[in-house]
Structure formats: structure tokens, C-alpha cells
Amino acid sequence: MKASLHHPLQAADVIQWDHHCDVAVVGFGAAGACAALEAARAGASVTLFEMAGGSGGASALSGGEIYIGGGSDAQTAAGFSDSAEALETYLQMAGGPDADADKCALYARNSLDHYQWLKDQGVPYKGTYVPGKVIEPTTDDTLIWSGSELAWPFREQAAPAPRGHVIQHEGWGGGRKLVDILEARTVEAGVDVQCNARVTALIMDGRAVAGLVVRQDGQERCIRATRGVILCTGGFCMNEDMLRRYAPHAAKLNDPIGVNDNGSGIEMGMAAGGDAIHLDEFFSTCPWIMPDSLAQGVFVNVAGNRFIGEDAYHGRVSRTMLDQPGGHVYLLVDNATFAQPLDIARIEIAAVGESWEEVEAELGMEPETLSATMRVYNRNAAQGRDPLFHRGPEFMTPLVEAPFAALKLDFSTSYFSFFTLGGLNTAPTGEVLDRGGIPVPGLYAAGRASCGLPRWGHGYSSGMSLADCTFFGRQAGLSAARNEPADAVSNRSIDVVSAE
Amino acid sequence: MKASLHHPLQAADVIQWDHHCDVAVVGFGAAGACAALEAARAGASVTLFEMAGGSGGASALSGGEIYIGGGSDAQTAAGFSDSAEALETYLQMAGGPDADADKCALYARNSLDHYQWLKDQGVPYKGTYVPGKVIEPTTDDTLIWSGSELAWPFREQAAPAPRGHVIQHEGWGGGRKLVDILEARTVEAGVDVQCNARVTALIMDGRAVAGLVVRQDGQERCIRATRGVILCTGGFCMNEDMLRRYAPHAAKLNDPIGVNDNGSGIEMGMAAGGDAIHLDEFFSTCPWIMPDSLAQGVFVNVAGNRFIGEDAYHGRVSRTMLDQPGGHVYLLVDNATFAQPLDIARIEIAAVGESWEEVEAELGMEPETLSATMRVYNRNAAQGRDPLFHRGPEFMTPLVEAPFAALKLDFSTSYFSFFTLGGLNTAPTGEVLDRGGIPVPGLYAAGRASCGLPRWGHGYSSGMSLADCTFFGRQAGLSAARNEPADAVSNRSIDVVSAE
Predict the structure, then answer these.
(1) Is A56 found in the same domain as A182?
(2) Which of A38, A88, B254, B339 could form a disulfide with A477 if both were Cys (CB 3.0 to 4.6 A apart)?
(3) Cα–Cα distance for residue pair A249/A323, rounded to 1 Å
(4) Which Pfam families match (chains A, B) (predicted)?
(5) Does residue A303 lie in a domain region?
(6) pLDDT tens figures, A463-496
(7) One domain, residues B427 and B476
(8) How far is CA A197 from CA A26, A48, A204, B499, in A?
(9) Residue B458 contacts residue B96 (beta carbons within 8 Å)
């Protein structure tokens, strides 16, 4: 059997090492760039392999938002106080039922230093705040609310502050600029960047990762990485087979956010003995809060019932939508809050009426379902309270101005973008852990190839993945650079079990 | 590093083989018994290792119900017609978004032959039918409705028939008797049964499984299994660490159904290169339909909304409960339907009132939430229809006789039993597949160590796991017995990748 993503090559079977380096990094998104940069600065010779023709990955498709807190210049200038404790609590809550307490604590204590580090690399931050519910700023402002900080139950346990620190950039898509800056620093630091280089297998020396096989110019080359291999290959939102086996509820969505997010690093890491956890988890969102007056709407499922405080982060609301039965949900708005949804969202107007009873009837719903929901909602909204789902008072607008409309968000036809959150289990150092919790020698991972700070679709907040990519990418680079080099292709080190 | 569940021993490192057999089976529940039996009858020398002092596993804790259809004697005698096609469709629907079409088809075509095989082993079936909604018969009758066949949406696509074929047995717990019978046949067939034998690692010869390490009498012994190892070790409902990493939503439940269901086979299979899929899925249930008048009740969540047709299989209803926010749900009943819940279920009466409005108020719920739900429900129930959740007409009893009560099912304190449904990905032959879909030579799995027919908590039906254990256990046994023996500890067979 040929070596592959699923079957590492044994070092003893390598006829010739075609290239030597201390640290090999796979993938040139934000995680890979940060890992390579720190490894090189720590004195390691670093080779970075990227499958595509250049840097980017899913990071370059993002808004370039990084989740940072604890009292940054921008937070202070905008009049917000924040603390490392509040940030840590928020990260813990957002991490869901198996949040990684160590990573949350480490990141929370160091996010301001990390922010400074990003500035030191040349990432520009204007330090100005945009209020309101925005997905990313289209101006060059750089601080926004990017999660569920103000929403229940988060606001009750973690003192809220805006923490989405966005690269200074006009318009959408600051992620490309962020990666460009990190790429420039990476090259300056002497990292040997090799693009159009597809890594096809790891090379193992007993339990340890010794290098990798890469396909370049039609040839397979064996690369010896003395101190370690760092997998920064992204998630698996573009691998239909993996989605089916591990995250079938994401498989029905139509817009994977990725470039080459084929799960190759997760597969290679598992084949090397690494544990992959929470593979069923995914982030998803539908851009229903643009135009922003729609953010005052009320969501109901096909039974006419609300299911969440609609003021939570759009990803949390969208992920909860997907839990609802019937394949679609409705966003209810009145004349005052109605706006034509973005074309791209493919949200259609399903019913219009002079009363909620008429909308209910036009949707073919039972009398006293949707209309009863809206009667309760409007009664409470008039008092600025939501005893059912704890929506914040500023979003409790009574929907009482005719005509009324129901917009339909269909899970299979509306625009639901998504990416996966499960991946290789790593220590805060970036070391890949095996199923017994022991590091696989010589193997590191960061970004969405790993299971990091974001690991629960219902808790995701914008900037959390890039925070994880950049910060824990750096840790992985440092750890690999400091790793004691393994003896050149030593013998297997597993104990002999004898009978007797 | 010592060999362990997470790190196979290499055959080259075995100093002495302490025992030789053609086929080694690990675990002596129903799956292991059937695997061993078929392997032995096919001419293989079989050794079966069981960690406990005797046979049983989770199978012996069950009701001994097996999901069989297509027109059995019992179905026909009770006046039901059924077909292999209807059975296959039902299994497909019950398997959820990644149902295994090949296994569903193979089982549906062969379930009557399998039923005959079970009878041939001496499993008694009286062939008599018990109507109604029962968890298992307490009489010695042997056919019941054991799933969601009559419930929406199943009834619309798969012609309903009762398919729970239960071993003839007075009282609860026929599973113990089923395993005893299979054990007797296993011993008669010449299987070498070794109890108090804990398998601690697999032994690999390159990519192939060559044997296993077992701890017996304080010693570790190396067992050579020439034709294969069959993992029948059950799921991981009793391994808190695995639950946290792979199925954190099950980790909060308090009653794992298992004996030694510690996931050891899944871990060893993964360490040998096997793929494990749908590890997040689990069956769960709370015994709320005993006494059976409670089955006429209505479930609402903390927002006062219904969330499922309550006539679905109790496991499907219970699993959907756990998706609801707030940590508990309420079962609403009136004077006519009220009965004291089973003590064991730890379901408490949370509110009583002369009207649904009073119950609503006593629960501290918003006016017009629960009471509006019940107004709609009672109006529709009077007409025998449920346009919202499609509950069958025979379960649409208006709840109109005061006093009214809300029973509270708390997810953390009520009795929620559960077991895991994810496991090693296997072919219908029982071969364990690697992440590329290629069999791991010499490795087989069956029962809840594998991901079989049941793989979606919301679709589980009673008898589906034992059907899978027994039928696919047999396939695994046959496959292993027919496997070409590997050359005694051959060299690794992986291709050498050379660079030019």
C-alpha cells in the first residue's frame, strides 16, 4: 500500500531525503504564517509548504477580525472597560460543553500582548469603534461587537465588551491584507516558502513524526523535518466525504468558507496517531441582519414558535435555526423594520398581511400559533422585556405596524456559509495529542486543522478562529523550534512486551 | 512507550507468541457470541476474550428485542403485512443523515433468515403480539411496536408494521436469556472462551492486525490471530474522558447502559488505523411512558412550546427533549391521563391547577405561552389532528379534565439512560475501514464498537442495536474465518516512496 494521507510512510522506507529543515509548516493561511514566523525567529530553519499558488487559505476570505480583550487601547478609547477574567469567562462559555480551559486561560492572559505583537508585525489598527450590530466594518474603523457578549446568557456571567479587533481596511475582506502582512514578515524572517506543493503523507519514525512527503513539479519528495511538522491546513468544510462521516448536519449547507479546506492535515494527523475531537461541530451563518433593520425581526420555526434571543451573534442564531425541524424558519418583520434582504442571502418573502393572523394564514399555519407568539412578543416588547428568550431590551421592538411580513430562510437554498470547528486535539503548546492525551513527538497543529478556542457552533463569535490561528499558530512555531531534534531516523522506541 | 489501547505493539517486537488461533474475538455480548459462533462453525479455531467474569455486556441488560421485519410468522399471525422494502426504508430513515445504505439493504433482505437462525440457535419466540405502547413486554409475548413506525414522518414513507421481536420471557430483561442461549451454542461450537481477560493492545504487522495483547492472571500474553481479530467490545458510554471529547452532550446524562462499555475496542481500532464515525451520536431515553396513560401527555419546553409528536418512539422523543433549552421540559397531563410516574424515573410534579392558565402561572411562565399551546392542542385534538407535529390521531386526546398537572423531567436529575452509537466504520462484511475507506487487514468489528444500523439518536428504535449486533456480528465472524491467513509475521508491505 502506498503512503497517503491515511498511511504515513515509515522513515526506514525512505530511500533518500530530498530536503532537510528544522521545522516544516504545512499551509500558508494565518496559522501557518504565524507558526513559520515564530519558528524562524527562534532560530529554526523553516520550510513552509502551500498547496495553492500563494498564501491565503480561509484566513484571506475572512474580515481580518481577531477576538481580543482585557482592556485594549481601542476598548478604552471607546469607553469600555474589559478584563482578562471577563474575556476568559466568555471564551469558556463560547467553547461549549468541552471548552478547553487551559487554552481559554492562556489566551485571555495574553491577548493584549498578542495584539501588540500583531501591531509589531505591521497590522494596522485605527483604534476606533463602530457601534451596533455589524458583521464587519465597511469603514476603516477597527473595533466592533463581534459575538454574543450582550446577549443572554453570556452577559450574565461575563462582563460584556466589544472585542472584535479588525484590521484597518476600507470595505469587506480585511483578511487578505492581514495574510499579506504576515506573509511579508514570514519571508523577511527567512522562511523558505514553497507554493504549489501538496503534502501527501507524513513520514514516521516509530511513534514520532520525522518529516513529510510533498508533491512538487510532478515528483514526490521526502522532506526531513528534524524538530517537527506543523499542520496548518484548515478544516474540512470542502471535503464532502469527511463531512458525511463526521459532520453530516453541515453537509446540507451550500457555502463552505474555504480555499483548500479538504481536511488533509486532520487526516494526516489522525494517521500519525493524533486524536481528532468534536468533528461534528461547525460554524454557520446566513446574512439575515443585513440590512440591519432586519436585526429587529423575530424568528419562528415552522410551528410558529420562537427558539432563541435573536440579538445573539448571527452565527449563534443561524446555528440554532439549523436545529429547528422542517428545513426552514421565518423571520418576522413589520413595516417599520422591513428591508429587502440582501440578494446574495436568497431569503424570500413568504407571506405578507395586514395582521399577524393574516400572515399566519398565508403561511398555512394553524390559527393561534404564530399570531399567539407575536401577541406575547409584542406585549413583552412594549415593556422592553423577554422572559422567554432573554433578548436584550434594545432589540425588543414591538412589531405592530402593518403590513407584516414573513421572510423564509430555507436551509438548503438560502445562503448558509459554514466551516468546521473540530480537528486535532492539541495542547496549548500546539503539540498534537494522541487519544491517550500524550503528545505525538514531532507533530504540531494550529488553526482549524486543530480543535482550538472555537469548538462549539452555538458559541462561535467572529474573530475567535483568527485569534486561535494566530496566537496558537505562534505557540506551535515556538514549540517546534525548541523541540529537541530527534536522532536522525532512530529505531522504533516502543517497548517490547514479552510474555512470561 | 509501552503498547496500549492507543499504541499497538509491532509484531516484530513480540518475543514470544503465547497462544495461536485463527480468529480472536474480543467481548462476549451478543455481537461477540455471534461472531465467535459463525467463525467456529466455518472451521476457524476461535478464542474469545472477555474482560468480565462471564458473558453479558450491554446485551444482557437489554430486553432481548431484535428488530425484524418483512413478514415474520408473528407479524402475519397478528394480521400485519410487512415487506423487506418497507423495512429497508424504515432503517434508512432511522439511520439519519448518513444512514449506511448497504447495511440497511443487506439486513432488510436477510432479516427473516436471521430470525430463523436465531430460532435455530434455540432462541424461543412465542409469536404473539402485544398491542399498544410498551417498552418491552412483561408477559411472554414476543412482538411489539418498538419504534416510530406509526409516527410521522416514518409512517408516510415506510409502511408501518410492528417489528420488535422479543425473546419469549416473563418479565423484564430477556437480554440475559438471549446471551445465555448464544453462549451455550458458542461453547458447543468449540470456541475457547477466556474470561477475566482484558485486551490491552492490538498487535500489528505493518498495516495488518496480527493479534492482540491480553492481560490474564496478572500477566500480559501475546496472542497470534492468523485470520483476524473481531472487536465486539461495546460503545463508550462508561468512559467519561471519551464522552467529553467525542459526545459531550451525552456526558451530562446519568445512567449509562453498559457493563464495561469503556470504548476500548474503538480506541484500539482507531490506533490500528480504523476510522471512527458519528462519535457524537447517542441513544437516550427517560421512562416517562410508564404508566402508559402518560403517553397521552403533551411535552412542552421551558418556553411553553411543543417540540415533537409525542407518539414517536420514546427514545426519539427523549433525544429531542435533550435538544431543548433550559435543562428540563414538562409533560402536561390532565386528571384523565395523570398517573404517578415511576419512582425510578425521578420525574416530579412541578405544578397543578384548575386550568392550564393556572399551571402556566404556577410554573412561573409567561401568560399565553403554555396555555396558548394547550388551547391549540385541545382544539386540534378534538378533531383528531395535529397539523403542527403530526401526532397520530389515536394519541390526540384533548387534555380538558381538571385538575391539570405539569411533570418536570430534568435532564440532570431525572433518569436518562443512554448508550453511544458512534464507532468504527465497518463494511457490511464487518471489516474495519480506514479513513480512506480501505479495510484494515485482519481487523473486524461488530456491535456498538462499530457504527452500524443505529447511528442517529433521533432515529433509534428498540431492537435495532441487537439486530445489528447479532446479524453483523455473524457477518464479521464469517468474514474473519474466510480471511486468507497472513504469512506469519511478514514484513511491512508499505511501498517505498523514493524521490527520483
Answers:
(1) yes
(2) A38
(3) 9
(4) FAD_binding_2
(5) yes
(6) 999 999 999 999 999 999 999 886 544 433 334 3
(7) yes
(8) 9, 9, 20, 14
(9) yes
| C-beta separation of B421 from B235 below 8 A | yes
- Please answer yes or no on whether A13 and B275 come within 8 Å at the CB atom: no
- Chain A residues whose CB is inside 8 A of the B98 CB are 244-245, 248
Q: What is the pLDDT of residues A8-50, one digit of tens each?
A: 999 999 999 999 999 999 999 999 999 999 999 999 999 999 9
C-alpha cell at B11: 509484531
Cβ pair A16:B98 closer than 8 A? no
Q: Give B257's contacts (C-beta < 8 A, 6+ positions apart).
A: B58, B61, B62, B237, B417, B418, B419
Domain extent, residue B452, equals 9-61+175-283+417-482
Residue A341 belongs to some domain of the structure: yes
Q: Mutate which of A239, A266, A497 to test chain B, going by most B C-beta atoms within 10 A?
A: A497
Domain identity same for A312 and A437: no
Q: Are residues B321 and B206 in the same domain?
A: no
Q: Cβ–Cβ of A246/B278 closer than 8 Å?
A: yes
Domain contains B488: no
% chain B with pLDDT above 90: 93
CATH assignment of the domain containing A388:
3.90.700.10
Separation CA A499–CA B218 (nearest Å): 11
Q: Judge whether B217 is closer than 8 Å to chain A, CB to CB.
A: no
* Nearest-neighbour CA in chain B from A313: distance (Å): 17
Domain C-terminal end among B136, B152, B172? B172
Write down which residue in A388, A410, A432 finishes a domain: A410
User: Average pLDDT of chain B?
Assistant: 95
Probe site for chain B from A13, A245, A380 (most B CB atoms < 10 A): A245
- B residues 110-139 lying closer than 8 A (beta carbon) to A: none
Among A368, A387, A492, select the one facing B376 at the smallest CB separation. A368
Number of domains in chain B: 3
Residues of A with Cβ-Cβ distance to B271 under 8 angstroms: 273, 435
Using an 8 Å CB-CB cutoff, list chain A residues near B490.
none
A298 plus A333 within the same structural domain? yes
Q: Is the dihedral of CA B260, B261, B265, B271 positive or negative?
A: negative
Evaluate whether B50 touches B166 at the Cβ level (below 8 Å).
Answer: no
For residue A245, list chain B residues with Cβ-Cβ distance below 8 A. 98, 275, 277-278, 425
Same domain, B255 and B391: no
Cβ contact B97–A252 (<8 Å): yes
pLDDT tens digits along B16-37: 999 999 999 999 999 999 999 9
User: Would you call B497 an interface residue with chain A, using a CB distance cutoff of 8 Å?
Assistant: yes
| A207/B1 CB distance under 8 A | yes
Chain B residue closest in CA terms to A8: B494
CATH at residue A31: 3.50.50.60
Q: CB–CB of B21/B194 below 8 Å?
A: no
Give contacts of A323 with chain B, Cβ < 8 Å: 323
Residue B321 forms part of a structural domain: yes
Chain-centroid distance of CA A360 in Å reads 37
Please check whether residues B190 and B262 belong to one and the same domain: yes
A275 touches chain B (CB under 8 A): yes
